[in-house]
Amino acid sequence: MTKNYKLVTAQKLAAYSAMAAAITASMSDANAEVIYTDIDDVTIGVGDIYQLDIDADGTADFMFGGGSTMSSGGSTWSFVSAFGYVTSYTVGNADNQIIGYTGSFYNYGSALEDGALIGPDGPWLNYPSLSNSAVLASNFYGSTYGQFPGLGERFMGIKFSSKGNLHYGWIRVVADIDPVYATIMDYAYETVNDVPIEAGSTISLVGVEELSAGTVNVYAFNSSVRVVVNQDLTSPQIRITDLHGATVFTAPLNNRQATIDLKNFSTGNYVVSVLSAEGTSNKQVFIN
User: Which of 63, 232, 241, 264 could form a cystine bridge with 91, CB 3.0-4.6 A?
Assistant: First the structure.
């Protein structure tokens, strides 16, 4: 299958620079690179296992596997999962994790949209006793679980340790049920340690400017967000995303301030970004 990976524009890069401040001043842009790997599509089902060596160092970093179990009444639970730490197969380590959430019965991988930021905020599934695993698609005795089924191509957000350094990356997959399967298509990671990456991107975020501390103030109260900018910016925009990378609000910022009502959105954490030619500011807030 043809892969359509993304070359990010300067404006889009700015929109996803939430962790730019963590990049040290001594780091050279010339050292920044996203390594993209296109593979022949690999489809696994129940009973299959597939391992990925993300950084091609000879050691598997993640594993995909399909399984099933039958109840005493003859009903079947089938699932396909990703794993970041499987000692019995010498796969990964405790730092190798997947962005996801804890569901009704298990941990599930988030089906990230194109452009979602993959960085320290995660949310990461850190459960070494469960092999840092995430169910992608599950037919739980006739009920569908997991975010991937029915969505087509989506991205897994990953982080992994290589030579003692932490790197962020993405894996493009399709996962569904009837029958349960996952297809692994391609993947990429940022070579500079501790630097976020955008899902689907092959461009490094190193070098994106972060606005100075105090330039933007963001306050959350109840179901509203208040944004105040303390200096003139060129064509400032407000963008609010959930932690799966989906945009829930975007608009120009007029008169240096705005109040956004999010009462129709779910309780939880959101990232509020102010984007401008001078740089960006990002803050995570909680909306209830």
Answer: 63
Classify each residue of 68-92 as buried b or exposed e, where b means 16 or more C-beta atoms within 10 Å of its C-beta: beeeeeeeebbbbbbbbbbeeeebb
Q: What is the pLDDT of residue 245?
A: 62
β-pairing, 76-83 with 134-140?
antiparallel
Residue 112 contacts residue 244 (beta carbons within 8 Å): yes
- pLDDT digit string (tens) for 186-212? 999 998 888 899 999 888 877 667 888
Question: Does 179 sit behind a cis peptide bond, omega within 30 degrees of 0 on the bond before it?
Answer: yes
- Residue 75 is given by DSSP the state -
Segments in the chain forming alpha helices (H): 10-15
Q: Dump pLDDT digits (tens) for 231-264.
A: 999 889 898 988 766 778 888 998 999 999 999 9
CA distance 57 to 9: 31
Q: What architecture is domain 216-287? A: Sandwich (2.60)
Please state the domain extents for the chain: 10-198, 216-287
Strand, helix or coil for residue 29? helix
